[in-house]
From TrEMBL:
UniProt domain Histidine kinase/HSP90-like ATPase: residue ranges: 27-193
Species: Stenotrophomonas aracearum
UniProt xrefs under SMART domains: HATPase_c (SM00387)
Primary residence: cytoplasm
Function per UniProt: Molecular chaperone. Has ATPase activity.
The encoding gene: htpG
Name recorded for this polypeptide: Chaperone protein HtpG
PROSITE patterns: HSP90 (PS00298)
């Protein structure tokens, strides 16, 4: 049965469509990049599934299995008379149910929350859309009707699907005959987008955005003059070799950037990348990227994370999470291993010596890449820190071995800089330590306004000692794991008896002792008056202007942690 039905898009899709059409008008040509990217993903998936089911390739009706004839390819063609652009792939294809699910809903977690943030301001929204990823629906930027003809590899020719929509809230699906495996997408160009029906223009867009795609993208060969053959000839217009397999010296920045957009499903440029080929006991190539902005779902537990895993050039899986620790979950990229088996599964990836040693090497590479960015381009790093600093702060707790390296990447607000910006590195701090200082002092609190005038800082101001001001929710937890840096220990200035050690002169100390003796009577009276409210009352030398201060015991939970525990009912 061909059973034609009309279905409504999920509400989120409707919203996204509206937005996309209105906010991406200045960058319309990206629709081609997105559709080619999907076609390339579909070829990757087929190649992978065919490892265990070679019959999937034969079922294509396209001759022998790979490699050799019937090669996987993407074909792009135009019909200026019909005002259409067609993108045809012979990848995995979609069944009717898959077409309904994948082209009618958005599966990403947190989509609703994301869409609620949109303001209606086109400029802001187009940036947010970039964070979200534009994908298939970008076809409707240039087309007022999109027809998708698809058949999943392995299904009979009679089980093709025709999906069709004008992008206005609903779509039709119908079962049709489709002899060739894969997906053909026909875009009916809007009246004002007719200039895309131009083979030369499409060619240049493909070169610009999709040159790095490791699969041939073909267009009809143009024949000038009379000797055009009767049969259509296709020619490959991109370079068609997987980018990471090429030598670094031959790859331009623009190519690295375009590859990132494909691999990370992002639409803004990355901040940095690191491309390495490792030979020896283990052999693999990695290409890691630092994205330019946090994805909208950075803090969703099931948000996609991890690298694209290839084994000997064959795509194996997206989101291989085992190669990087959680605190580096924002890093994107590809790892291509020669040591893993092609039928490696998520379970196998859980651990093992190969995975472990790759993970520690890739972690180190990621941290080195961030270090380099911080050194070479401090302004760019400051932008990175705003987006991902909070995540990096999870590092010292998760990755004990690298905690010194991670600490070097952290940025703090401090008494050195009144702006409250998190801009001070520990190296900066060490460089400003005063004579005799051998500790790194910090103060935690709820907000910068709250801590910046704290009485705890008085003695430090007087002596000209810098104090780090930590006011993020995660900071107290972080400081529980960060005990020293460059051999200097961290000291919470709000805790216990503040021992300033060598920073205090002998006269200071004597004066303090005398003061303590003198005030013994007052201390006793206060203790009786306050009773159980306090653990102890002491004469303090941390104050210069304020008469009294509340301090936290050396071993007690900090205020932030207390609040977190209280809020969770403990
Ligand atoms: P993404 O590529 O980030 O998953 P898209 O919106 O680009 O999101 O595509 C949505 C889904 O539609 C894909 O994940 C895939 O399952 C399916 N899809 C799109 N294009 C194709 C294609 N050419 N062949 C097979 N499946 C496709
Ligand atoms: Mg896509």
């Amino acid at each position: 049965q061909t059973h034609k039905e009309t279905l409504g898009f999920q509400t989120e899709v409707k919203q996204l469509l509206q937005l996309m059409i209105h906010s991406l008008y200045s960058n319309k040509e990206i629709f081609l990049r997105e559709l080619i990217s999907n076609a390339a993903d579909a070829a990757d998936k087929l190649r992978f599934e065919a490892l265990t089911q070679p019959e999937l390739l034969e079922a294509a009706g396209q001759g022998p299995a790979l490699p050799g004839g019937g090669e996987l390819r993407i074909q792009v063609s135009v019909d200026p008379q019909a005002h259409t652009v067609t993108i045809d792939d012979n990848g995995i294809g979609m069944s009717r149910d898959e077409a309904i699910a994948h082209l009618g809903t958005i599966a990403k977690s947190g989509t609703g929350d994301f869409l609620r943030q949109l303001s209606g301001d086109q400029k802001k929204d187009s940036q947010l859309i970039g964070q979200f990823g534009v994908g298939f629906y970008s076809a409707f930027i240039v087309a007022d009707q999109v027809d998708v003809y698809s058949r999943r590899a392995g299904l009979p020719a009679s089980e093709g699907v025709h999906w069709s929509s004008r992008g206005e809230g609903e779509f039709d699906v119908e079962t049709v005959d489709k002899p060739e495996r894969g997906t053909r997408i026909v875009l009916h160009l809007k009246d004002d987008q007719q200039d895309f029906a131009d083979a030369w223009r499409l060619r240049s867009i493909i070169k610009k955005y999709s040159d790095h795609i490791g699969l041939p993208i073909q267009m009809v060969k143009e024949h000038h003059g009379e000797d055009a053959p009767a049969e259509i000839e296709w020619e490959t217009v991109n370079r068609a070799s997987a980018l990471w397999t090429r030598p670094r010296s031959e790859i331009t920045d623009a190519e690295y950037q375009e590859f990132y957009k494909h691999a990370a499903h992002d639409h803004q440029d990355p901040l940095a990348w690191s491309h390495n080929k490792v030979e020896g006991k283990l052999e693999y190539t990695s290409l890691l990227y630092v994205p330019g902005h946090a994805p909208f779902d950075l803090y969703h537990r099931d948000a996609p994370k991890g690298l694209k895993l290839y084994v000997q050039r064959v795509f194996v899986m997206d989101q291989a999470e085992q190669f990087l620790p959680l605190y580096l979950r924002f890093i994107k990229g590809v790892v291509d291993s020669n040591d893993l088996s092609l039928n490696v599964s998520r379970e196998i990836l859980q651990s093992g010596p190969v995975i472990d040693s790759m993970k520690s090497a890739l972690t180190k590479r990621s941290l080195d890449m961030l270090e380099k960015l911080a050194t070479d381009k401090p302004e760019v790093y400051a932008g990175f820190w705003k987006q991902f600093g909070q995540v990096l702060k999870e590092g010292p707790a998760e990755d004990f071995n690298n905690r010194e390296k991670i600490a070097g990447l952290l940025r703090f607000a401090s008494t050195h800089d009144a702006s409250g910006e998190q801009s001070v590195s520990l190296a900066d701090y060490l460089g400003r330590m005063i004579e005799g200082q051998d500790k790194i002092y910090f103060l935690t609190g709820d907000s910068h306004t709250q801590v910046k005038d704290s009485p705890h800082l008085e003695v430090f101001r007087k002596k000209g000692i810098e104090v780090l001001l930590l006011t993020d929710r995660i900071d107290e937890w972080l400081m529980g794991y960060l005990t020293e840096f460059d051999g200097k220990s961290f000291v919470d200035v709000a805790r216990g008896d503040l021992d300033l050690g060598a920073l205090e002169s002998a006269e200071d100390k004597q004066a303090q002792e005398e003061a303590a003796k003198e005030k013994q009577g007052l201390v006793e009276r206060l203790k009786t008056a306050l009773g159980d409210e306090v653990a102890d009352v002491r004469v303090s030398h941390r104050l210069t202007d304020s008469p009294a201060i509340l301090a936290i015991g050396e071993q007690d939970l900090g205020l932030q942690m207390r609040q977190i525990l209280e809020a969770s009912g403990q």
